[in-house]
Design brief:
The protein has about 325 residues and is mainly β. The protein is built from no helices and 26 strands. The model has no long low-confidence stretch (mean pLDDT about 90).
Length: about 325
Amino acid sequence: LAELHLYDGFESRALNAALAPGEQVASFALSGDRRRVAYVVEAATVDQVFILDVGAAGSARRIYTGAPKQSGQIFPVQVSLDRDGNRALVVDANASYPLRRAMVRTSDGAVTPVGTTSPGLVQLNGGTFNPVTSEVYFQGQVGGQPPPMSGTGFLTLVAGDASQAGSLSQIGGNYPVGGGQGGGINVAVTPNGRHVLHAAWVGLAGSQTFSLRLNDRVLGTETDLFRAFAPNEFPTPGMFDLNRDGTRVCFRLNEPSATGSSGPGRLWFADPADPGRATILTPVFESLGSCTFAGDGRTVVFGAAPAAGRVEAYAADVLQPGTATRIGPPFTTLES
């Protein structure tokens, strides 16, 4: 992006402050209430983060200046906002603080390095704000050596209060040490702020077993969303999706006969508020991809191929489980 623009249905207007030669808007993030936007201005030597009120023209102000870039550094600063835009999480690969993440108070730009009083953590990945509370979640490496020797500890889900981001606590389980095993993968939070979903895995390359975990922030417990999976049953940790109101999770499971990660398999769905139960959503497909909920919260769109067929787009309705409908006309001979 060269600039950051807002289209209001009638016209488009620039939101960012004036850019100097060589600068560009690299990325942006909206607050949960959609009233504030933070954006990163990328330059050759230093990146900057600005915030503005969406409805107030000319309100952009700088809240963070990145560390000077090292020679050959190509990764710009990244930013995300909490539910009301009062806190910004900044990822700065060139920063001097060990975990390369800072929580910025947007009212005055005060910076708190994340996790500095949590000595057991040696690296952090990601960063997801709770949409209701002040919690923020990360994948954290517990023990072992920092990158590039980060496979020596284990990965798990960690959390902290955005207003006291220097202190993080482990809220996920313990996992075997070595090889990058653990949880905190693809974190998703239900809109009511109660349930945190994430994937995990154990086992070394070629023999991993993946799981889909549910952390209840009210009860302070963690369990499987549905049940423990067999090896190759839940073949890829990214193959699940949470619908917009947080009442359903779709996920893909391979059949016991599957010898590869692509299938045969089918989609299932479950309610985060009722762990331990799940419903079959689709028939078995020879090859099956990941699932995505449509805006209505009940329609699931996915790519799949029947036996001896090609992968095409399908839809399924959680109110009519067990069936799936191909979207659009069938492919011609030369299409795929």
